[in-house]
Amino acid sequence: MPNREFEIIVAPDGQVDLKISGYQGKSCLQAMEVFRQIVGELQSHEPTHEFYAPEEDVRIHIDRQH
Question: Is the pTM of this model over 0.85?
C-alpha cells in the first residue's frame, strides 16, 4: 500500500495550503475533495508528477466522531 501524505498549512490570514502526495493519477482529486468540503472552495491547485501517472483505484472512508 502506498504511503499517503497530507501537509496542511494554515496561514495567519486563514489561507489553507494543502499538499497531497502518494496518490497516482487523478485519484488525488478524491482526497482533495474531502478537504475542499472542510475548508471551502479552492483558489488554485498545482498538479505534481504523480498526477500524470497511471490511475489507481482509491477508496476513502471517513469516520467522524463528535
Answer: no
Average pLDDT in the 2-20 region?
Answer: 86
Distance of CA 61 to the CA centre of its chain: 14
Phi-psi region of 64 (alpha: psi -120 to 50; beta: other; left: phi over 0): beta
Tell me whether residue 47 is in a domain.
yes
CB atoms within 10 A of CB 23: 22
Report if residue 65 sits inside a domain.
Answer: no
For the chain, the domain total comes to 1
What count of other Cβ atoms lies within 10 Å of the Cβ of residue 17?
10
Place of cell 505534481: 48
